[in-house]
């Protein structure tokens, strides 16, 4: 049995800007930027079907989580699908799938995130705790430069 996480958030930017924030370096780093000063994020991305977005993040160089995302669907500005291998600090890993939908909501965007395949409810719940702040960071990255309010 696997577990899934569903999250929705209305972001104060148009779908194109939100989609781009998820697929451009600044937004990708923002998504993983933790709440702790000094949090490390290293991100490289080959944005194409079959391309890999690799992210290392954590509190110290010797304490980094690693996520390897492979782009399965890129439908700008509506949809992204990624298969993901997450490697934990203890070296264990698991595979999931992330689907992101970007729907017009007036002059804003409704982001629907479905993250499937968690092997345990505990891992799913751990992700549930971090996703709201990650989406808030993407919202800040999606806003025009002169409008980076929190």
Care to describe what's here?
The protein is an alpha+beta fold. The protein has a single domain, classed as 2-Layer Sandwich (Alpha-D-Glucose-1,6-Bisphosphate, Chain A, domain 4), CATH 3.30.530. The chain is 26% helix and 47% strand. It is built from 3 helices and 7 strands, in the order E-H-H-E-E-E-E-E-E-H. The protein has helices at 15-23, 25-32, 121-142; strands at 3-11, 40-45, 52-60, 63-75, 79-87, 93-105, 108-118. It has a 7-stranded antiparallel beta sheet, with helices on one face. A hairpin with a 3-residue loop joins strand 4 (63-75) and strand 5. Helix 1 (15-23) crosses helix 2, helix 1 packs across helix 3 (121-142) and helix 2 (25-32) packs across helix 3 (121-142). The longest helix is centred in the C-terminal third of the chain and has 22 residues, at 121-142. The radius of gyration is 15 Å and the shape is globular. The protein starts with a strand and ends in an 8-residue tail after the last helix.
């Amino acid at each position: 049995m696997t577990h899934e996480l569903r999250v929705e958030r209305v972001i104060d930017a148009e779908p194109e800007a939100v989609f781009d924030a998820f697929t451009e370096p600044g937004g990708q780093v923002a998504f993983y930027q933790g709440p702790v000063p000094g949090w490390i994020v290293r991100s490289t991305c080959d944005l194409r079907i079959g391309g890999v977005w690799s992210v290392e993040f954590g509190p110290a160089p010797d304490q980094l989580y690693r996520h390897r995302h492979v782009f399965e669907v890129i439908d700008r500005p509506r949809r992204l699908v990624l298969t993901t291998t997450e490697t934990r600090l203890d070296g264990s890993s698991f595979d999931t799938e992330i689907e992101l939908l970007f729907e017009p909501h007036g002059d804003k965007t409704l982001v629907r995130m479905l993250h499937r395949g968690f092997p345990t409810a505990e891992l799913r719940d751990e992700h549930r705790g971090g996703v709201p702040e990650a989406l808030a960071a993407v919202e800040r990255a999606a806003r025009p430069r002169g409008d980076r309010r929190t």
